[in-house]
Amino acid sequence: MDPIWWLAYLALGGFVGLMAGLLGIGGGGIMVPILTSIFVIQGVPHEHIAHLALGTAMAAIVPSASASLWSHHRHGAVRWPIVGHLTPAILAGTFLATFIAALIPTRGLAIFFAVFMVLMSLQMLANLKPKPSRTLPGPIGLSGAGLGIGGISALVAIGGGSLTVPFLTWCNVRLPHAIGTSAAVGLPIALAGALGYLINGWGTPGLPDAAMGYIYLPALLLMAPLSILTAPIGARLAHRLPVGILKRVFAFMLMALALQMLYTVFTS
């Protein structure tokens, strides 16, 4: 692999970690479109581009999700009974969705990803937050929510925070606990998603030599450590910079990256 790609993956990992610490936003929305472009330039066959980007992004989320879970647990912000009810369904939903993703062509995955990211960006721009209007459902209701959160998260390579936090706040869970609990379920999402993409891509012809299933190891090994290093820097900057303005800028950037991903897969 050309050393220039080492620098590209390091820079991407550093930027993702910085944004995660600064804005509390997972890196899938950044990683997937940029990885898609890199894989196109590297000559990955068109039919594997989106799958490889999604799988690599999911695997790269595992270390940061672990660190986030531990941090929120230390601050007593994780509602572990909720985690216990959500996690089995989230694991199942995430893992099964990777099998569905393996059957969807690259362009179909790109369209789903772009639509989701545009909707999420619009929500960020409008600062829409569900008003607490009900209590938490029972085990069956939580399992249904977990299946949906896990399934969508696997198809767009996110840790689930953009879905879990609104759901929990809607159910009258205090925001700090909603964020902490979301961080806790982010780890099983990342683990199940990474495992699913690894299994579904195993032995698939046309993947790069350094790929394990739909996980490209050079990208993973270079992105993940640097994202962990830069996340605390972003967290410190969050207390000094106008985060509200940065969130709006970030929302526009997510939309641009999603549209860029569409352009890449439809013209490559």
UniProtKB/TrEMBL annotation:
Pfam families: TauE. It is found in: Cell membrane; Membrane. The keyword Transmembrane applies. The keyword Ribosomal protein does not apply. The chain crosses the membrane at residues 6-39, 51-70, 82-104, 109-126, 146-171, 178-199, 211-233, 245-266. It is a multi-pass membrane protein. Keywords: Cell membrane, Membrane, Transmembrane, Transmembrane helix. Its main location: membrane. Belongs to the 4-toluene sulfonate uptake permease (TSUP) (TC 2.A.102) family. This is Probable membrane transporter protein.
